[in-house]
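step=encode ok
step=design start
structure_in=
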């Protein structure tokens, strides 16, 4: 089996969500919300959206992931879960007890980092440390003029926003960049539950591999052919070694359409696969072997009944991929 790491080192302790989802020795499974099929258009119905997240928690899946989609952009073709991710995190924190609550990912250049830091710390406290915050520079050019933000500066803005958010976890921070100045004479409250937020970088976010390895608490990357993905993960962890920092997890989203035939071989769909559950098991085993720590399944194109799909994935896969 192709393998790029022995993963003998554990990840840094940050909060309950991060450390339950990301295990150095095994792959875990979660879902991108909304948990419904909406292949024919960009806007989901959000029917039973809370109940399905609660079902995923009860079945033992490790995380659910929201997205930051400010506008319904026609060229993008997906409105995500519609609701603002931070408001929705508050709702889910109150309606669940154990499952990690992730965002994949907050578009940093489109939000002031003071608001991101405060909202994220609040969600972390309300969820008792279950927040995992993915961060990204954004890939929908149409949204930037609406907020009077230059698209070509998104890499710089991402980096400065990240630095601002990190500084707000400190007691009485003294910090200044283009987003503003806060002196040690005042403070931002609340603080994250364990003093820090887990920040996972999505894609490259217009940053160098060195910057991502040194600064992120993990890496969210898109699904790719096995050999290519293995090469990229190996390069990421090699860069981590060069930076002399703690090992960091890798997660991958995957759209699936679970076929009724358990042995149906994979057929590509948008950012994912139509395949039988045995083929999905093989796929996940192969990802585990190259160092992927978490796969977030997206059921947008799934043709089977959603509740039955959740139950089937739990019965037939979860015993092998559990936290």
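sequence_out=
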């Amino acid at each position: 089996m192709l393998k790029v790491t022995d993963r003998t080192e554990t990840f840094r302790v940050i909060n309950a969500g991060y450390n339950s989802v990301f295990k150095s020795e095994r792959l875990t499974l979660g879902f991108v919300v909304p948990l419904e099929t909406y292949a024919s258009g960009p806007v989901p119905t959000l029917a039973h959206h809370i109940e399905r997240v609660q079902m995923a928690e009860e079945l033992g899946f490790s995380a659910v992931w929201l997205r930051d989609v400010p506008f319904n952009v026609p060229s993008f073709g997906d409105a995500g879960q519609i609701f603002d991710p931070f408001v929705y995190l508050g709702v889910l924190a109150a309606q669940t007890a154990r499952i990690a609550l992730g965002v994949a990912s907050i578009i940093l250049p489109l939000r002031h980092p003071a608001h991101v830091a405060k909202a994220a710390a609040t969600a972390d406290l309300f969820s008792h440390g279950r927040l995992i915050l993915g961060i990204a520079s954004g890939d929908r050019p149409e949204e930037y003029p609406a907020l009077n933000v230059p698209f070509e500066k998104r890499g710089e803005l991402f980096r400065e926003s990240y630095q601002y958010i990190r500084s707000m976890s400190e007691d009485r921070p003294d910090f200044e960049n283009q987003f503003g100045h806060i002196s040690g004479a005042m403070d931002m409250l609340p603080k994250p539950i364990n003093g820090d937020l887990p920040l996972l970088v999505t894609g490259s976010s217009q940053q160098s591999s060195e910057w991502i390895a040194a600064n992120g608490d993990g890496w969210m990357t898109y699904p790719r052919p096995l050999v290519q993905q293995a090469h990229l993960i190996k390069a990421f962890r090699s860069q981590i070694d060069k930076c002399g920092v703690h090992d960091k997890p890798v997660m991958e989203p995957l759209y699936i359409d679970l076929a009724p035939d358990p042995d149906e071989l994979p057929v590509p769909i948008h950012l994912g696969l139509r395949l039988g559950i045995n083929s999905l098991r093989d796929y996940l085993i192969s990802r585990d072997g190259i160092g992927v720590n978490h796969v977030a399944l997206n059921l947008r194109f799934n043709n089977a009944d959603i509740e039955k799909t959740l139950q089937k994935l739990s019965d037939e896969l979860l015993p092998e991929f559990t936290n």
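step=design ok
step=annotate ok -> DSSP finds ten helices and twelve strands in the chain.
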